[in-house]
Amino acid sequence: MGDNVAMKILKEHLVEGKLVPGQEIALRIDQTLLQDATGTMAMLEFMAMGLPRVKVELAAQYVDHNLLQTDNKNADDHAFLTSAAQKFGVYLSKPGNGVSHQVSLERFGVPGTTLLGADSHTPTAAGLGQLAIGAGGLDVALAMAGHPFHLTCPRIWGVKLTGQLQPWVSGKDVILEMLRRHSVKGGVGKIIEYYGPGVATLSATDRATIGNMGAELGATSTVFPSDQHTLAFLKAQGRGEVWRELLPDPDATYDDHDEIDLSQVVPLIACPSSPDNVVPVSEIEGLKVDQVIVGSSVNSSFRDLMTVCRILDGRKVAPGVAFHINPGSRQVLENVVAQGGFIMLLLAGGQVHQPGCLGCIGMGQAPGTNQVSLRTFPRNFPGRSGTKEDRVYLCSPETAAAAGIFGVVTDPRKLSDLLFWPAVQNPEQYLVDDAGIIVPPEGGSAVEIVTGPNIVPFPEFPALPDQLDVEVIIKVGDNISTDSIMPAGNKVLPFRSNIPAISKFVFEQVDPEFADRASQKGDGAVIGGENYGQGSSREHAALAPRYLGIRVKIAKGFARIHRSNLINFGILPLTFKNKEDYDRIKQGDRLQLTNLRELIQGGATEIPVKFNGGEILTQLTVSEREREELLAGGLLNKVKEETNGGQS
Ligand code: MIC
């Protein structure tokens, strides 16, 4: 039986365990990715390990999230990251050079290698046939220190692509079709591998779009084969020599199956406020639009932007619409400028911003009250835009451009009444300019690390006690995202390296009293529904609640990265054995967990929880390694124990 692409890469990188779905495995990591919002903490964690230099083939640090400089904080973090990158052998992509995913695709990605990134959208690298996985900052810091990455061996979900996309339909519509079919939980525990004749019709950047938003399906990763399109993209970047062909064997099999006939995919749109709330654009045609944003984390490539330029060429953005463009990278912007696209945007009335994440993480571009905002971003969780009760829709660049011109949601296929489909291709040779990348010097040991006053020491957490008597500080429903747990935005993001300060914002939009209540009550618990902690990789969604005293989270189910982050910081991730028990516990109840250490050491998979005179059974689904981390009070404590010969 032949291997699929994912299995080939997994086999080449497996260092522990067996490739049996559900079992814990460890993979060798070739490249790492940090961005500034998660990377400041991750860099501090790496430094706590005391190594002189990173031990991966390539480590890169991008400054793309915290670009606003309203006071010293973000600028201090940039200076810290720049000095640390120099010292430890990390490539530094400067503020304004672009979004990590786009720059990594352009300048660093290598087919067939592994990339671990402190950002859930790291699988954008699927566009190059790289196996890229999003993880918490601490896991990435460990990988930078040369440790393998542990994960539950995923099932491989083969999605056969046939046919060819119709004009005005693009990669974004394919991933929205996946979300329409399978929901934000559909990819949990899986690597999605696209194969079949339709793959050859998709450019590397369309594949990157599909890979990026595999994160919205909850998938561990996404892969595409590395073929002639991959080679063409790498050659156009002047990096053809890193290409290798990576195709599924002709008799490759998959654990799960689906099929998409690309020619049947229609323009789709995700309605507020979940990426899987997908309908055909035609269904909501005519809805008045106030704001359109193209770019940021996804759909910010040359093809995406140039398509928008061509659609806007010689036309005007509708008077009531603010039309923003956030290029994915300096390189994208330079190439759009070189091909005359920039002037088309300006003359049409577009607002062009510096390359970066910007409004995608709530750093500006928040819509007004009740305003409808169409974005080519990957996420539209409630309030993520920065505006409470926002109305954010996710769509392709083609749909975004059509809305910009007509001022109302419009099926982009109607644009053929105005112009021929531009069918923009990626250039055969990009204008390549690495001025925004600082290459680390050979020996960086003499470099002084620069730290500002906002970088505060990492909090210390004790080992897990034997008994826990905790109060339920909050009870929430299904699909709570990390944006709800630990909001981002311009007010909060500058505190990513200051846990005491950022913890004041935990659950701010759901329950503004949460942080005060949690710190007053001492040890606490959170009750959640299905897919708790979906969305971003931000470890602050575990770290900050832990700082406030949260010791246990009991949910119907956890999202992959958040579950690992909870364990990394010593929070017990328990699931209800009987999901109906969720209804029996309410906010304010006291929960007692006894003999915890003995149970966890002894390999117990069921943990009894007493409350209000009753008892429920919860499940602890963790590996041996994770049990040790929980007992130690978190992964950093365990690493310290190991380095100090058993003394914490
Ligand atoms: C996101 O899309 O939510 C982010 C911003 O890329 C995050 C990273 C973060 O929280 O800083 C992610 O998805 O990991």
Task: Give short descriptive properties of this protein.
globular, single chain, alpha/beta, binds alpha-methylisocitric acid, seven-stranded mixed beta barrel, 20 helices, Aconitase, domain 4, metal ion binding, Aconitate hydratase, putative, 648 residues, six-stranded mixed β-sheet, Aconitase, domain 3, 27 strands, iron, iron-sulfur, Aconitase_put
Describe the structure.
This is Aconitate hydratase, putative. One of its GO terms (molecular function) is aconitate hydratase activity. Keywords: Iron, Iron-sulfur, Metal-binding. It is a single chain. The chain is of the alpha/beta class and 648 residues long. Among the domains are: 268-417, Aconitase, domain 3, CATH 3.30.499.10; 468-643, Aconitase, domain 4 (Alpha-Beta Barrel). The chain is built from 20 helices and 27 strands. The mean pLDDT is 97. Residues 37-38, 65, 119-121, 134, 297, 361, 379, 488, 535-538 line the site of alpha-methylisocitric acid. Alpha-methylisocitric acid binds at residues 37-38, 65, 119-121, 134, 297, 361, 379, 488, 535-538.
Brief summary:
With 648 residues, the chain is α/β, with parallel strands linked by helices.
Portion in strands = 15-25%
What is the molecular shape?
Answer: globular
Number of strands: 27
Radius of gyration (Å): 24 Å
Amount of helix: 25-40%
Coarse structural class: alpha/beta
Q: How would you sum up the major sheet?
A: 7 strands, mixed, barrel
Strand order of the largest sheet: 21-22-23-24-27-26-25
Instruction: Assign the CATH class of the domain at 468-643.
Output: Alpha Beta
Ligands present: alpha-methylisocitric acid
Distance between the termini: 48 Å
Question: Looking at this structure, what is the CATH superfamily of the domain at 468-643?
Answer: Aconitase, domain 4
- Within the CATH hierarchy, at the fold level, what is the topology of the domain at 468-643? Aconitase, domain 4
Task: Pick out the low-confidence regions.
Answer: none
What count of helical segments does DSSP give? Answer: 20
Could you report the average pLDDT, rounded to the nearest whole number? 97
The CATH architecture of the domain at 468-643 can be given as Alpha-Beta Barrel
